[in-house]
Design goal:
The structure is a homodimer of 519-residue chains. With 519 residues, chain A is α/β, with parallel strands linked by helices. Chain A contains 20 helices and 18 strands. The interface between A and B is large, with 68 and 68 residues. Chains A, B: It comes from Coemansia asiatica.
């Protein structure tokens, strides 16, 4: 067997690779970034560790990037498709409809380049790739409230997302434990709620992150989780709260300590929330805005003296009607800002409230919710805890409890990869309502010391299924045995790029595909 | 309540703290190390985050370290006790019998120093500490064969061990997947068996690690695991092997791929092993030498044509008698080197071989083996997988299997802490045979990208129970609720010292002791 029969032709890459593009600021900055990556990197996949220097058949003179439109609006409708042609000789071309399609193609191109002795090459040329994502929402939930993350660690995570063509940074920016983000409307929230003056995000920090993400084709969707998960608000506004830090029986009032919810019997909590919405819908430009709505605890309100007094004065009302009214006022207000609401599935499925049909539901509890939601006409993103919660499997974290976590076991990359958000959904109209998937890194047991290995390469496994779907062009559903080599390669590439992705197996297995399968 | 009633007196620490000692090279190098740590560090425990500047009552002029003997022999009998006195004013004194006791006292002293505004202080002075370990073996098993670790990451791990008064680095240096260590007797083992020329440990590297460990009071016990776990030997010596890399049904022949065992029917494998023992018992000075002996697979031999032929020619013998003879020849030879054998529990409990009673058994499968072994007069170290295997709980790692690992779930720090190696053992003579405990970091799913958070702070939880035992002086068995604040403190201290220990909880919980307990 001739070598060319195995690998096709090999294009040499000159030591200073010319990448040129014309697509406005987004494409220009990406071209600079990828020129650096391609020139610096000399990556060889683990499976090729014994490969000798390959004879080249031609020399690639450059990569020319062009886009149909330089419009850099980034949203759910952004076209991320691209067409990449790499000849054996001469210039490669990358064509895209939008700047963000060009970014995806640049990432693909960078992954084609491999070390070849002291030089670099692209194997199997000529190459023609016509590529587009299956799902428009390929996200990561990042929780900066349970523990704080520096801007550097957020930027590194955005880099890593871009290496995997992920496009939504769901910034779960505040929660019960801390309020790191600046508020100009209520400065005391940050002042009293941040872990320290150093553990904060100013307006400038937020804008910097949004810009950094945008240059990588990543939308930043902020989440301000109300009315539960709000203990930290009470440090500044105790008059708005119910069941503040009940101890020791916090579990009667909240999913985790400290308990505390906005008091839904008080119209002031709607005013407060709507003012936050007014402020942060301006700071965060994305068309989608997440308003939480998860894990509200009825006991917290039912046992609150103010709520009890209100209900005594208003026969016919109850906690449920108060909650529906509350959700409704907040969602209606959000709609006036022009944003689409993004909300946890409980808002629909665990309450009597019926959100408007522009609302995007984030499913996490029950895979059946995906089907239920799309059959009711809602768009969904799935973060099914059983497959997408990358923090899980780390055991319980309550100090006095030697037990498992509610969401054990650990979600392996195989388990993440095998998840099918569209399982059992056949109606094409309903399928279109599936926007995608989102891995979550809840931070009770994570901070920046460990975020890289906790996310990667497992988030990359999700990213592939969200970009390429479950099946290849022939309809064959990809198996993890087939994917393993590719994911090893991507893991080692990411480590080379400065992301501390954890190893999947002994290096021996990475080098011997198929040898570490269960018979 | 007066402040002094809470915190005792506070001794100020001058900006350049004088630490002086007289105890030979070990103490002198430790004194330099801790002088640097104490001068550099300005640590405040998370629980004290709101503490204002404390008024000092005196000023500490220095710490004088003295030892009874400068003999720097490090072994099972090393005396690690120390007495530390910290007055409010003047000089603190640290007295120890051996240099290694002084090291432990220096670590304790460094942990007493806390930031106090722009200055430093020691709280609750005067302090008198009379301290000694409960167990002489407080170990970490480190596997450099499934994946490779750089010298830097090993040294960082040894630093971290010293911060937790751990004293045994069990270096599981080779295994089926790779042979990184130099052999002068069989150079081909490393040449063919290392993952790459860069992923190796030369004699000089090994000596450097042993010296680095010794200066931290840590013994290095190497493990050369025979006769199983030896596929990698077969790349150089195929004639010595049985069941080399059987595929795809490796699971019939080995606990994990690749299969391969030294052929116990061939006396050449005994010669080979004994030559390795001759070589490496010289390179590694410790009095204890680990010869593996775990997870041998009888099918591997029973189905080997050479073994079958041997048994056909030798009626009355069988695989079991061959194995007993093999163990016996190897252990007898090891004894002639003057070393004490350290071996996995299977050598006794899963074979008919009866090791001599100087042998130390490492229990990992069954907690009942601890009792069985000590009742038979063997010394033991426990690495009970259910509590001490820190790699577990990460799910399966075979590429095509979406399942749990055999040793799920994850071992939380609470679970590690709650382990009692001496459970149900009351006879003082038997109790003395318990040398201690050892956490294990098997590296199928670990390499240096993730070793820090995978080990710490959980190994610190083991370290405390191995140093201080399960109960305090009054007999009260410590609970994890009581320990949590101390371990948080240690975790943050380690992060400050450059160890990427993972967070145990939201910072909010670290700052609010007791608020994150299960009711």
């Amino acid at each position: 067997m001739k070598l060319s029969a195995i690998i096709g032709l090999v294009a040499a890459i000159p030591s200073a690779m010319a990448v040129t593009g014309n697509g406005g600021q987004i494409v220009n900055s990406a071209v600079n970034r990828y020129r650096d990556i391609i020139n610096k990197e000399s990556f060889v996949a683990p499976v090729d560790y014994k490969r000798g220097v390959l004879k080249t058949s031609g020399s690639l003179q450059g990569l020319v990037v062009s886009v149909e439109s330089t419009d850099d609006t980034l949203g759910l409708d952004t076209d991320e498709s691209y067409i990449l042609d790499v000849p054996v000789d001469g210039k490669a071309t990358l064509k895209a409809k939008s700047p963000y399609g060009a970014l995806r193609g640049l990432e693909t191109f960078s992954q084609l380049v491999t070390g070849n002795g002291n030089s670099k090459a692209i194997l199997n040329t000529p190459i023609h790739i016509d590529d587009a994502p299956v799902y428009p929402h390929r996200g990561l939930l990042f929780d900066t409230a349970r523990n704080f993350y520096s801007l550097d660690s957020i930027k590194r995570t955005l880099d890593a997302m871009s290496y995997n063509k992920m496009n939504v940074f769901h910034w779960h920016i505040v929660d019960a434990q801390s309020w790191p983000v600046e508020s100009k409307t209520f400065p005391e929230l940050q002042k009293n709620g941040a872990y320290s003056a150093a553990q904060t995000y100013s307006y400038n920090d937020v804008k910097q992150i949004i810009q950094y993400a945008k240059e990588r084709g990543i939308r930043v969707i902020p989440e301000f989780d109300v009315p539960g998960h709000t203990y930290i608000v009470g440090l500044s506004k105790p008059e708005l709260m119910s069941c503040m830090n009940k101890q020791p029986n916090w579990d009667h009032f909240a999913a985790e300590p400290p308990s505390g919810q906005l008091n839904i019997a008080k119209p002031e909590t709607i005013d407060f929330t709507n003012k936050l919405i007014d402020e942060y819908t301006k700071l965060f430009p994305d068309e989608v805005f997440h308003v939480g709505g998860d894990e509200v605890n009825r006991n917290c309100w039912a046992e609150d003296p103010d709520v009890q007094k209100y209900l005594a004065d208003h026969p016919g009302e109850d906690v449920e009607s108060l909650l529906v009214n509350w959700y409704s006022k907040v969602h209606d207000h959000l709609e006036t800002t022009g944003k689409q609401a993004y909300t946890w599935e409980e808002t629909l499925f665990h309450s009597s409230y019926v959100p408007n049909n522009k609302t995007i539901l984030q499913v996490w509890i029950d895979q059946a919710s995906v089907q239920k939601a799309v059959s009711q006409g809602y768009r969904i993103v799935s973060s099914s805890y059983d497959s997408m919660y990358l923090d899980c499997g780390h055991g319980a974290w309550l100090s006095n409890w030697d037990g498992n976590s509610w969401c054990d076991p650990f979600k392996t990359w195989m388990h993440v990869y095998n998840y099918d958000v569209a399982a059992n959904i056949t109606d094409p109209k309903q399928k279109k309502l599936i926007l995608g998937t989102e891995v979550a890194a809840w931070s009770e047991q994570i901070d920046e010391t460990v975020i890289d290995p906790r996310l990667w390469p497992r988030a990359a496994a999700m990213a592939e299924t969200a970009w390429s779907g479950k099946a290849d062009a022939s309809g064959h559903v990809r198996t993890t045995a087939e994917v393993a080599s590719r994911l090893h390669e991507q893991r080692f590439r990411m480590v080379g790029r400065g992301i501390n992705a954890e190893p999947m197996q002994p290096l021996w297995c990475a080098r011997n595909p198929g040898a570490c399968n269960l018979p």
